[in-house]
Each structure stands twice: as C-alpha cells, then as structure tokens.
Amino acid sequence: MTHHYANRFWKKNWDNFVYDLKPEELEITVVDLFKETFKDFPDHIALEYFGIEITFEELDKYSNQFATMLIEKGFEKGDIVGINLPNTPQFVIAAIGTLKSGCIVSGVSPLLSTTQIIYQLNDLGSTGKKVALITLDTSFTKDMIKIANKIDPLKIVITTSVASFLPHKNTDLISSYGEIPEVIITPIKGKIVLDFFNDILKKYSPDPVKIDISPEDVGWIQYTGGTTGQPKGAMLTHKNRVSNIKSFGKWLKWEKGEDVMCSGFPFFHIGGLNTCELCIFQATKQLIILNPRDVDYIIKLLDNHHPSILSNVPSLYQLLMEHQKFKELDHFKLRLCISAASPFPKESQNELESIIGRNKLLEVYGMTELSPVATMNPYLGKKKLGTIGMPIQNINLKIVDPITGVETSLGEIGEILVSGPLVMRGYHNKTKETEIAIDEDGYMHTGDIGVMDEDGYITIVDRKKDMIIVGGFKVFSNKIEDVLSKHPAIGMIALIGIPNQNRPGSEIVKAYVQLHPDYIYNGKEDTVKDEIIKYAKEKCTPYEVPKIIEIVDEIPLTPVGKIDKKLLRKI
User: Fold this and answer.
1) Which terminus of the chain faces fewer neighbouring Cβ atoms within 10 Å, N or C?
2) β-strand partners of 47
3) Smallest Cα–Cα separation from 141: which of 155, 128, 160?
4) How far apart are CA 467 and CA 477, in angstroms?
C-alpha cells in the first residue's frame, strides 16, 4: 500500500523561510532560551498588568528569588510547584523561578473543585516528590486551610493577591475582578506558609541559582481532562517545549523585541503557558488579562496598546465581535490573530477578518500531549480558513481509520496521529494510559478525527468521542455545527448524540442552540426550531439532521472557553 503521509509532501507549501530544526538546535533548556532574552533585552517591558509594567531584568531577578527560596526550603530537582492562580505577574515569576530551580511546573486551574485539587497535588507527589502550591489568599482561607491535611506531599503553601503588584487597588482591577477583601493568613500545621511579596521578593537574593538542567529533564506536568476517569498529567521535557517554542517563532517570522501580545488564554492551560513562554523567548511585551470574560477591559487594552498579536479561543473572539467598540478599533498594528483550542466556525472567521483585516487569522491545532502545537496555517502563504493548516517543523503526521488503524487515502476521514520531538514523555505515573496513547512507533493517538487535502491542509471533523453513530453511519458533530452555524438564528451550536431507545447501539442527534443576539423572531421557539431543521434538511444528509433542538440561554463552556459537551451529555 502507498504511504501517502510518509514523504511529508506538505513541506512544499511551507513559507520559504521555514525549515526543519537541526537536532542540535533542540539541545538546550527553556531556562537557557530565556537567559538570552534577559541578557539582550533587560530594559524591554515583559509584562503589563493594570497599568504597572515589569521589565525583563526585573522578571529575571524576581524569578531568581523564587528559585532561591525553593532551594533554600529544601526543594530539589524534580520536585513540583503547583501554580493555582489566574493570569497575574506572580504566575509568570513562579513558573520561571520553578524551572530555574530544576523543579517542575504544574498549572492548577483556579476553577477546580477542592476534590480535584486534592487529587492533582496527591497525584503529583505520588512518586515521592515534594510539592509546593502558590495560590490566592482568598482561596487559601476558603479552601486550602480545610484541605491541606489531606495532601501529604504538600510542604509549602505560598499566598498572594491579584492586587499585590499594584500600588493601590485600581478601578479597572475591581471592575474586572470584583471587590478584593483583606485576608488574614493563618499557619497550617506541618506546612510552611509564605507570603509571595513579604517572604520571597523582600527576602531572597536576586542572584542567579546554579542548577544543572538537561534538555531531557521534565519541566512541566500539565493535566488534561480525560474523557474517562481522572485527569492525567502529561510530562513535558525541556526538549519538547524548546522544539515547540523555536518552531513557532520561526514559522511566524517573529522578531525578538518587536511585538506586543494580548492573550486571554489562561496560563494554567497549555495554550496560555505556551503563549507566555513564547513571548519571553521572543522578548515580546505581554498584556496580562486577569479575567478573559471582561471584554470591555480587553477592548480598552487593545485601544491603548495596539498589540501586534492576539491569541485566544474562538469563543472569546466571538464575544469581542459582538461589541460595537471592537469593530470600531483601529487594528492597523495587528499582524496576527491566533485561534486555538477548539473549532472556529468558518462564518465567524470571515466575520472576524472583515473587522481586523484579511489574512491575519491563523488557526493552529495541538494538544497538551504535543507540547502543544502540531499544525498551523502558513504565516505568509495560503491560509485556508476553516482548516488547522499543515504539520509544522520536524513532525510526522498520518491519518488512520479510527477502527482498523490502517492508514487512509488522502481526502479520507480518520484519526490524526503525530510523532516528532514534541510528543510528551508520557503520562505521570500512568504507564498503561501512556501505552494506549503513544504507539510503539512513537505516534501520539490524538483522538481527533480529521481529513487532509492534496496540499497537506487538515480539517478537523470531530473528536473521536464526539462522533455520533446513527444507524451505523458516522455523524461528525463539528462538521454539522459548522454548516448550521451559518443560519442567522444561531449564535452558538453544540451537537451531541443521545441513545436511541428504539435502536440499541444507535444514537439520535440533538442540537443545543444559543440564539444570535441580532436575531429577531416572533417569540415562538417552535418556529425557530422548524426553520433550523428545514435548513439542516437542505444542507445535510438525512441521518445528520438533528432530531431534537433545544434552545438555551447559554451553551456551557469549559474553563478554557471550549464548548463543554461532557456537561451537555450529563444534562
């Protein structure tokens, strides 16, 4: 049989300045990558946060203090720091400081329940490693005090506030975040409790630490929500992340010290972490967004700072587009708009480009286990809206039949498999799950269903788990959502399969619809539902047409802004 994907034919469609990285280019740690920025751009602004600015030199020194604290408190290479914060300067300082100390960064979402936090921290410490946690003082008094005794590996708890870096509580911060209470921090028996400012930044030396770190060392354990069972920690090495950071920078012709980034991606998620670390390597100023749902503040930032790059999930772009002020902004400095983490309907992509300018939107695709980006549309070459572009540097990618595992022909739908220097080391403490995810040829089985065209561009059709089976036919929910989202009544749509009681093993297609804010209708939901079904019958094959439509005020989103189908299935 012919191996359509083996010769990486898509490389001919890369921009002419893009090439595979040489093996020796990957033999460096992320800490050393950052050193270049700290040395060459000390006076450049690294972070902007509600009006205060932190230079790269300050970021370097603060992170040295954090690293020194960890080492002096007995943390050794391979111990772990959980960062349980929204996007703040403290998150960035703690992450870099952790890496400098040879310890491992683990984002701990502030949206997790206490049960989930207990699970993640115990799992991190399950191999005998010590764990530290940095958290907000409000979370400390609300949750940490109650649960700390259930987390044996937890040795240090560091507290801070969203207002700590600000000379006074400013109005933007309060309108974005809400009132900021005064909190009294009390000791916890058997744990060291520290205040980020008073006990670390005011006490420890800002001199560099000396720790030997190698490219093969694990620097991150990022948890990814499993479709079944508990979340799994993907272990990423310095080499994994270097391959991604360097490839991404070269792909986008990113010049050091030239750009301003505005991203609503949470740092605790791999998408936000990647954006943040890329910006440090590229000496790019980051406008920090504490609350990605505060669209008014984001628009104010765009108006004041004219960023050259935006990086967000599709749902945030959709929120921005609903805003008249966003449409009126001057986007002259914006060279690039990155969209990732979930599918972005083509209709909405066209609408966004009509506001910001043509050829600026770039869809990328990846997953935590791929450190994280695997495919992108070209920066200057042909962008195909609605596709996730083509495989980036140093990657082998193939599409296989999701059931038989046999390689498909070009243009045929199947599961996307990826190999290369970006594939994670494995799942922390989960050998069996690692063996299922990464096959003996080193290919990561992504669980995403897609199709590649003759130029190498890939369209994601669905998640393997979101595929709906109707009487033996495969219905790819993303594809149908994309088609139906063109109907003027639909603002957002999500399809799930529900069991068909009359036909065991078969499912019924159900659509949840959030109406478009501009849509005017006579108040009768049934009329709207009939219209949508009629439209679906014109555009889809009979088995793809939703049998049930439910109109909801709001489609639930995950903390990262993806549509929460897991929750919809539970309902």
Assistant:
1) N
2) 54, 286
3) 160
4) 6
Query: Burial level of 11, CB count in 10 A (0-12/13-18/19+)?
Result: middle
- Taking a C-beta distance cutoff of 8 angstroms, is the pair 485, 493 a contact? yes
Distance set, CA 198 to CA 7, 165, 201, 202, 559 (Å): 57, 12, 6, 5, 31
Alpha-carbon distances of 29 from 24, 206, 283, rounded to whole Å: 12, 21, 17
pLDDT for position 1 = 42
Q: Is the dihedral of CA 237, 239, 242, 248 positive or negative?
A: negative
**Once rounded to an integer, what is the mean pLDDT over residues 368-396?**
96
Domain 9-22+239-463 belongs in CATH node 3.40.50.12780: yes
- pLDDT computed for residue 345 by the predictor: 83
The pLDDT value recorded for residue 560 is: 77
Model confidence pLDDT, tens digit, residues 274-294: 999 999 999 999 999 999 989
Query: Tokens 């001919």 map to which residue?
Result: 12
Cα distances (angstroms) measured from residue 163 to each of 139, 202, 334:
14, 17, 29
Whose tokens are 């992170």? That residue is: 63
**Spatial CB neighbours of 526, under 8 Å, sequence gap ≥ 6:** none
Give the whole-angstrom CA distance, residue 119 versus residue 133.
13
d(CA 26, CA 259): 24
CATH for 30-37+55-213, among 3.40.920.10, 2.60.200.30, 3.40.50.980, 3.30.450.40?
3.40.50.980
Q: What is the pLDDT of residue 559?
A: 78
Q: Do domains 30-37+55-213 and 467-570 have the same CATH topology?
A: no
Cβ partners under 8 Å of residue 142, min gap 6 = none
Structure tokens at 571: 């309902």
DSSP letter for 73, please: T
Tally of CB atoms within 10 A around 361: 22
State the amino acid at position 386 in one-letter form: G
Cα gap 151→229, rounded to integer Å: 20
